[in-house]
Amino acid sequence: MKQFAIVFILVMVTSTFAANQAVITTTDFSSGSFSSLDLETNTATNDYLRIHSDAVVRTYQDKVYIINRLGQDNVIVLDKDNLSTPLIQYSTGNGTNPHDMAFVSESKAYISRYGHTQVLIVNPVTGDSLGAVDLSTFADSDGFPEMSQLTLYNNRLFVVCLRLDQNNGFAPTDFSVVVVVDVATDQVVDVDANAAGVQGIVMTGKNPSGASQRGDKWVLSTVNTFGDLADGGIEVIDLGNLKSDGIVIGEAELGGNLNFLAMASDNKGYVVVSDANFANLVKGFDLTTKTVSASLGGLSGGYVSSLGVFGTRLYALDNGSFSDPTSGGVKVYDVNTDQLVAGPINTGLPPASIAFIGTISSLQGDFNGDGVVSFPDFLAFANAFGKKAGENNFDTKFDLNGNGSVDFPDFLIFVSSFNPTSSG
Which of helix, strand or coil describes residue 166? Predict the structure, then answer.
């Protein structure tokens, strides 16, 4: 009966929750704008509103959040059905340089602040402050921990602290660290009871620039120093066991400095690589076999500002080359074949960051790893529905929002990626 009930609800709400749109910040590094992309037709609607020249976009349920970084230090909230008119704009504090947002619910979110010692806690829709989490003990000698990427898992917030020396050209210090925060209490979790003080997860690599979560694994691309093309790599953080699995694939194998990263499945991902000639390439990799694929075709060789995966499509934000700026735009690849299937799609100003409306991560719900969310995944989810942490056969991969149980909010996340007509 449980499966039949879920099937009925699935039929009723799939069309409502199916996401078919991307939102994209754009910039020429002196001005910024905001565009959207219809994922069915690969057509863009450009310049909804002017934003900061240094901004990133995040989505949660039916809201879009534009994070205006250093120089504006605020968040713009938009409704997905009206991207031209902000619902509200609120400050994160002058000079705080907000970098990322992680959403616990419609009424609670965390904002990392690169230029501050505290993670801000807010009602993301209204901007009302709900407090802060002090990370000053993780700062390096300049007094700031340089907090950046965020993710949530199993009622815990994970915060990357780059720990760069702002008094020495933002050079990496002795280590970067992932700080763990209990979402229920907003207190920092000590991951090593045998060491003095409150400890975070010390990373093997330094200065991570890209991040992508797949279930209980957080995959980070670490660059360390830009002058050395072989001192970074792709590192995996085990969110369930609060430890680093170390660098799985090094920069030497990938062929240069690493930047933005996106995972297409639990094992397969893509990363932006800057080679010895400063050309930007996008290469595929496999965490299990530790192999690297050939560079994707069709890129300009110029700056690739971000990557995003939705369903079976990879979206590469190509800024074009100096010799041919028109070669830039959004370029769409099939993750099963690595072939270019659309683009370049013009976004007005060059594209900068991307997020997808109606989904929380790049393909949550692909439990069997075949690159699509379809009926086999539904049957697996239905069998897991109702299980709670501590019970027999509870599997964290079905707990999509990390609240300790496989329940209706997880089902809504699953539905947002469900595509019964896709054959992969």
Answer: helix
